[in-house]
Amino acid sequence: MNDQSSDAKTAAAMQRHPVQGARPAADSAETVSDVVFRQVRQDIISCRLKPGTKIKLEQAREHYSISVSSLREILSRLTTEDLVVAEGQRGFEVSPVSRRELEELADLRSVLETHAARLSFAAGNLDWEGDIVAAHHRLAAAERTLLSGDLERTIEWVRYDWQFHRAIVSACGSEALLSTLSSVFDRFLRYHMLARSFRGKAVVEDHKRLFDLALKRDVEGAREVIRRHIRSGVEHVLKSGRV
After folding, report:
1. Which position among 73, 95, 105, 131 has the lowest Cβ density within 10 Å, counted as fewest Cβ atoms?
2. pLDDT tens profile 191-208
3. pTM above 0.90, yes or no
């Protein structure tokens, strides 16, 4: 079977079973490479592809049902987000993790998210408030499920967590800022997925507090909660002993 016919079959299959995660599901305008790019990216963020693991192209080609040449292009794209490391002629590996990177990502996320929140609070309208209410409703429902002990819903919570944080900053007026924050958020999230545990009641309370402050347009209060929320996330990951 040639590369084009193999890739075409992959596109059809993934449209039937779209990849779920922080990024939106595939649409009809996407190419096969776009869909597989998101799937590989999500597998790295969720730690299905473990940090430091060498990516064997033939095995990956079979797993993702895409040509080796397309796979190389995808992995090269992921190096620009520091999710994959190119090893010259030796191929690619999933980027390793470190305490230093975790701390740097936390600082960067804090700067970006608090700045975006300030801009968003100033510009947000009634539709923006409605989006926050809806996003928090979904997130709170997922968190109640997790607190009850159903940890199989963690991936669903991850998606709703991002949707909530993004809703709060969505009125900032800068697509570049939102895109950069999204990438940093996902890289930070990889460390939480590596920790393999839910942060519990404290994170639920943070989200409720942030929700209330956003609707009140309390910029300084929200920025303080965001900073504390991110810092407690770092402490949670480090306590897991997996970094």
Report:
1. 73
2. 999 988 888 899 999 999
3. no
